[in-house]
Design brief:
The chain is α/β, with parallel strands linked by helices and about 575 residues long. It has 20 helices and twelve strands. Helix 15 (about 440-450) crosses helix 17 (about 475-490). The longest helix has about 50 residues, at about 50-100. The protein starts with a helix and ends in a 7-residue tail after the last helix.
Amino acid sequence: MIKKLASCIREYKKDSILTPVFVALEVVLECIIPYVIALLVNNIQRGCELGVIVKYGLVVFVMACLSLLCGALSGYFCARASSGFAKNLRKDLFYKVQGFSFANIDKFSTSSLVTRLTTDVTNVQNAYMMIIRIAVRCPFMLIFALVMSVLMSPSLAMTYLFIVPVLAIGLGLMIKISMPIFNRLFKKYDALNESVQENVNGIRVVKAYVREDYEINKFNEASQELKRSFTRVEKILAFNSPLMQFCMYVTMTAVSLFGAGMIIRSGGSAFNVGDLSSMITYSMQILMSLMMISMIFVRVTMSVASARRICEVLDDESTIKDPENAVTDVKDGSVDFDNVSFAYSADAEKNVLEGIDLHIKSGQTIGIIGGTGSSKSSLIQLIPRLYDVTGGSVKVGGRDVREYDIKTLRDQVAVVLQKNVLFSGTIKENLRWGDENATDEEIRHACQLAQADDFIQTFPKGYDTYIEQGGTNVSGGQKQRLCIARALIGKAKILIFDDSTSAVDTATEKKIREALAARKNVTKIIIAQRVTSVMNTDQIIILDDGKVHRIGTHAELLADDPIYQEIYASQMKGGDENG
């Protein structure tokens, strides 16, 4: 895990090295200053001249300035190193997620990935910042302060030996108890993020069904659960401060008592006031170092859980990869399913698709129809290899889709998914997802085919109209037509429409079908709920419970297939025959 995270330091290695170097110099100077002050106090006590006082004063001033400079430089380099490390970590995580298949994303869930990219990265960044600065400063300070204490009074320095074990045992117990709680804490973060994400994405549905109170209660429950866990762990960690205060005051009292006794017994010859003031300073430095070490342990303990979650993503390999010697040319738009079975996970009890045998010729228009849950969307997602088959094979252009370079394959298979997604940006920017080099003329032609040009022209800025995130400022039908236009812009040999005209009126849908029919050399696969959307296709495939029930033309199926007859009869009662 450490090696994986360390690889994200990259160009910030220099800053990560310079930070502890300047911290070490700062600590050395801070530990020498009390010793110089002790010499100054001892000289004053003996009745030295003003020149001696000025000399020691200048030495302390210069050392304090150097210590300040080293502290400022260590802070500067630490800020660069930690923020740069976090930047690289987010970049690596985001790039990794971009390469994931749908199966990988299903495994982690969207809300969990968001938490890992935000909260978890921030926790690890803060821990790294503490490690390269405070985690270096504290041990250095502890060691140097102990060394200086022993040099000044070995017998008085023995006082620390009794208090350090008490502090170490207390901190160890706190960490042991809090660590499992931190591990569970981030799963509750995921649940909270999931609640927020669902609510924001579905806010229109929430308001339409007046379910605000339900969503508020759901969010409050997740938030309260997170609060209870944080409260529990904070109660444990709250012992840190009183424990430190107890150890600090006990040590200072012991040093003061024993030190004062040594001064009285020796008459100030072996140990005097200057030495005692330095010993008190060193005891403060030692205990403050221990307190900071305890804070580092708390932060690192919390970040370990985050680091593990981040590494889970970084270590996970996409279930879909480019093969060696990948094919980079798709011959035509033919599609063949050979005894295909598919399940979303390896431990699924039942396959979503079973025994699928289909053979679609290049240039054909195919309709797919079936009831809800018949796995229509699952079927077409295998063609551009959004998922891999569990058994059998899917071929495009006569080659198994697993033999293709993924980008090549997906460039030739344009999919308008059931959930239409538009991104924040202008209409032109959204449409150029289909072809980043598309000209304005090509964009407008695609929109004319998708029956989108007319409503775009009504916008004051036309094709430069800004689309809000998720396309919230356009209607469902407009969003569908823009997504269809985006697919039509590319030079794909296969076009797949997954119920992509459900929000479009039948007259507009008819115009879209006629425009698609003009593209003779392109294979078109249309998933639909309405019979009118598929009745003029070359072949209609009826799916039932993940299996092919029947294949035939509209006339053939209407003549003798009971499922098709039932769907047709139920829809035509509404007068849909004019579509």
